[in-house]
Amino acid sequence: MKPHLTDEAVLDLALGEAGPADRTHAAACEACGARREETRAALELARQAEVPEPSPLYWQALRSGVSRRIAEAGGAPRRFGVLVPLAAAAGLLAAVLSLRSSPPPQPSPSEPRLPAWSALPLEEEDDGLRVLEGLALASGDVGDWQAADGLEGYLESLTDDESRRLADSLRQQGQGGES
Amino acid sequence: MTSAALAFPSGLASSSVPQNGIELEGQAERDAIAACQRGEREAFDLLVARYQRPIYRLCFRYVNNHEDANDLAQESFLKAWRGISRFRGDSAFSTWLYRIAVNTCLNFRASRKPDARELDERLVDPRPGALAEIEKDAEAGRVRAAVSRLPEKQRATLILKLFHELTHEEVARILGSSVGTVKANLFHALANLRRAAAREGEGRR
């Protein structure tokens, strides 16, 4: 004979949710049949626990109470949807600023220089470099690129302020060319 | 914002909510939730009206008295309003709201002195057939009192499954457990209820 049914199977039987195999077993097994009946009776007992129905006027009082509590709590729902991205953005900004304010790590002399991905065009195809060279030579106010490790090294060595001034110069140059 | 600007039917303005609540299904409920997330209070009145009865009854079954049930129901709705921005529709709104209410009831009970009368989960099985000795005309109050003394998880499972007619899967989602755990808790809740009733039947003899 099959082993006795598990508690879950007995519960399913009492709830009328058991499969045919368990139903057949309970019908043939006196012990499992008795457990099913006890569980079924307990379900009936539990279902007698009806909640007394409040006065019809109570529901309006409940809604008023909820409204009052919401008003006392400040009214608006919490804006987690906005605050979380804002907090994340603030954290990211702080991390970037702290990285930029600290000196960049110096590669060891033996460390090979790895090629970096760049969105810039190849140097020989980049007409902007010629403009930069001309600007730097003409104005002399954005640092000595020739003293640096080539143009690429020079651009990397620019401070934020110098980069901003260079961008302004380029913008003015562009506007001058258009006029 | 005025109720006229709400994206759900203007005929459901809060002032027109019947005393016993309203039916708010499908798209109308989703629209009301979206309006709440924009901060529109009138929309939340509709959700309260829709769910006030089941939430109150759930709380009542937990604490077995009107005053605490009223307080807990209001607290549950307040928490729902404050957290509604986090509701993303991954589950039914009712599931989300029931979960808030269950947690509110659990916290309420945890903040009180332990009920010395709470049933011990480790009670041994009663003798077979004990249920037959219980009076058939047991009053609902006595059964509710026995339900309110069940261990926390068993009580939550019994209330949600039997009295709110939720599926095992829905109860599992609300309680953050598995279907197997829900079934096990329900089975033991019924067994404990049976034992409590049997003991009371013996005590009254």
How would you describe the overall organization of this protein?
The complex is a heterodimer of chains A (about 180) and B (about 200). By secondary structure, chain A is mainly α. Chain A has helices at about 5-15, 20-30, 30-45, 60-70, 80-100, 125-140, 150-155, 160-179. In chain A, α2 packs across α3 (about 30-45). Mean pLDDT of chain A is about 70; it is low at about 110-120 and about 140-150. With about 200 residues, chain B is mainly alpha-helical. Chain B is about 60% helix and about 0% strand. In chain B, α2 (about 40-65) crosses α4 (about 95-110). The termini of chain B are far apart. The relative contact order of chain B is 0.10. Chains A and B meet through α1, α3, α4 and α5 of A and α2, α3, α5, α6 and α8 of B.
What are the key terms here?
heterodimer, A: 179 residues, mainly alpha, 8 helices, B: 205 residues, elongated, disordered N terminus
Q: Largest interface here, residues on each chain? A: A-B, 42 and 57 residues
Give me the strand/helix succession of chain A.
Answer: HHHHHHHH
Give the N-to-C terminal Cα separation of chain A.
99 Å
pLDDT < 50 stretches of chain A: 110-119, 139-149
Question: What structural class results from the helix and strand content of chain A?
Answer: mainly alpha
What helical percentage do the residues of chain A reach? 55-70%
Please tally the β strands of chain A and state the result. Answer: 0
Content-based structural category of chain B: mainly alpha
Query: What is the subunit arrangement here?
Result: heterodimer
Q: How large, in whole angstroms, is the Cα Rg of chain A?
A: 39 Å
Let me know the average pLDDT of chain B: 79
Query: What is the number of beta strands of chain B?
Result: 0
- Can you count the helices of chain A? 8
- Beta-sheet strand percentage of chain B? under 5%
Largest sheet of chain B: none
Low-confidence stretches of chain B: 1-16, 116-137
Helix content of chain B: 55-70%
Q: What sort of overall outline of chain A do the alpha carbons produce when their principal axes are compared?
A: elongated
